[in-house]
Design goal:
By secondary structure, this protein is of the alpha+beta class. Helices cover 48% and strands 14% of the residues. The protein has two domains: 351 residues, Cathepsin B, Chain A; 36 residues, no CATH class. The strands form three sheets. Strands 1, 6, 7, 8, 9, 10, 11, 12, 13, 14, 15 and 16 form a twelve-stranded mixed β-sheet that branches. Strands 2-5 form a two-stranded antiparallel ribbon. It is globular. 34% of the residues are buried.
């Protein structure tokens, strides 16, 4: 192309850009703005190296903070014995697994067991039934509202979800009890709930449309409730086909250690010569299976099994939160978060993060596990089992400031409270926590054998709620929980 022609094309392009800018609406991304951004951007050697790395490997792999990894160690000054790692598989039942993992050591201690597993699918079945009933009751209750009402839209988006919180777990256990895993085993649908949830959602949306039609035609609340009875029978059918039918009663027995033999062994151990201690230890190990016996078979209902083998009053556990968006010293409740229509919504006393730490330490030092809710999206390595602030140094990779406060992350939806786990240990130095031991429900092939080391700075950034028995809670916090709760909408980020 000739030089004159090139000059003319350039003039025309600039003119076109200026004309486009002139016609652009205020706030639009104009050609002139784009040209300025392009001309200001410098692809220096560092940017090229990072571009080459990011286009050939993952962001996490190149941004992991090597200083944190070099200093990492997983020793703890205090940890409690638990009953083994569980796996929620491809389901959103973390809250349920966390609740079971918290009460499992209680049952194991009561029955003197080395291992035990609850049937999560049993409680999952009734959770789905209760959520379906709540959904349909809400459709009846909101019958006069516009279909685009925000509460209705929220419920229709996921009529029967997997998720929940400790209040939901406690309400379900109180109403339906629990059973051992052997009495109702997992199925493909319980472990991977996506397809089942989609079909339940479709069925319940069909039911919602029918209920609104009945009301439009008859205006009769009685006719709506009669239809709901049939609808719940259809939900039950679908759940049985996916999960199996939960038992009304079951017969169970377990391995029980011979108490008399244990006492004799203990006295013999105390009297043994130090030189014979190692030999005796090996002898005890060899005789272990011989010393065990099976308990007598016994028939239970799910509720009688819980009352006899666990016995905790779960309604005595309270939710203590660090809500960074709102004033401390207040009681909050999130509407429509109950899974039982006649159950409890999620509610919490809002206190500072140091109070949460102090309460967790108090319970752990009494050899009890603590349920908690957190945002596990940032700064955690599932391969190594590490949770630490700035575990991934994204700012150095991009050359940009990316930091948000805890309140900003929650308020502007950069983070969410998306996973429940339990604390089972702490590393204290001069009375201060350096790190925390976490039991997860993602199986033993993730983390460090299913466990995570949570550094104290990660606790501050990403832990939002803990569940603690009232006996460990100071009176001033119990007084907060006695206040009338300020109700928050179901789309609040603290849910």
């Amino acid at each position: 192309m000739k030089q004159g022609a090139t000059w003319l094309v350039g003039v025309l392009l600039v003119g076109a850009g200026l004309l486009a800018d002139a016609w652009a609406q205020d706030g639009a991304l104009t050609p002139g703005t784009i040209e300025k951004i392009r001309s200001d951007f410098k692809m220096d050697a560092n940017a090229k190296a990072i571009r080459n790395a990011l286009t050939s490997t993952g962001l996490k792999e190149i941004s992991e903070n090597r200083e944190i990894l070099a200093d990492h160690e997983n020793k703890f000054s205090h940890k409690i014995k638990t009953g083994g790692i569980s796996n929620q598989k491809a389901s959103g039942r973390c809250w349920m697994f966390a609740g079971f993992n918290m009460i499992k050591p209680v049952l194991m201690n009561n029955l003197d067991l080395d291992s035990f597993e609850f049937s999560q699918i049993y409680l999952q079945f009734w959770d789905k039934m209760e959520k379906a009933n709540k959904f349909l009751e809400c459709m009846i209750e909101f019958r006069d509202r516009d279909i685009l009402d925000r509460d209705i839209v929220f419920l229709l988006q996921d009529p029967c979800p997997d998720g929940g919180y400790f209040e939901n777990f406690a309400d379900l256990v109180g109403k339906y009890g629990v059973i051992p895993r052997e009495a109702m085993a997992e199925t493909a649908s319980s472990e991977a709930t996506g397809t089942m949830n989609r079909m339940l959602g479709r069925l319940l949306r069909k039911h919602a449309a029918e209920l609104r039609d009945i009301y439009a035609e008859t205006g009769s609340l009685k006719q709506m409730r009669l239809a709901k009875e049939r609808m719940m029978a259809e939900v039950y059918r679908m759940l049985v086909l996916h999960l199996g039918e939960p038992p009304v009663e079951f017969t169970w027995r377990h391995k029980a250690k011979d108490a008399d033999k244990k006492d004799a062994d203990k006295k013999a151990d105390e009297a043994a010569d130090a030189n014979e201690a190692d030999d005796k230890s090996e002898k005890k190990k060899d005789d272990y299976e011989v010393r065990q016996k099976l308990s007598e078979p016994k028939t239970y209902t799910p509720k009688s099994f819980y009352e006899e083998c666990v016995g905790l009053d779960l309604r005595q556990f309270v939710n203590i939160g660090d809500d960074p968006m709102r004033p401390k010293g207040r009681h909050y409740e999130i509407d429509l978060t109950k899974n039982l229509y006649d159950g409890r919504n999620l509610n919490y006393a809002n206190v500072d993060i140091q109070t949460l730490k102090d309460l967790v330490i108090r319970v752990l030092l009494d050899n009890k596990a603590v349920c908690f809710d957190a945002d596990v999206s940032p700064d955690q390595d599932s391969g190594k089992g590490i949770m630490a602030r700035n575990l991934y140094d994204y700012e150095s990779v991009y050359g940009l400031e990316l930091d948000l406060t805890k309140a900003e992350r929650l308020s502007f939806r950069d983070g969410s409270i998306n996973h429940g786990m339990i604390f089972i240990g702490v590393d204290l130095r001069d009375g201060k926590p350096m790190k925390w031991l976490v039991e997860n429900s993602w199986g033993s092939d993730r983390g460090s054998g299913g466990l995570w080391t949570m550094y104290d700075d990660w606790f501050e950034d990403n832990v939002y709620k803990i569940i603690v028995h009232r006996d460990y809670v100071p009176q001033e916090i119990l007084d907060i929980l006695d206040q009338p709760a300020k109700k928050l909408p179901v789309w609040d980020p603290m849910w």
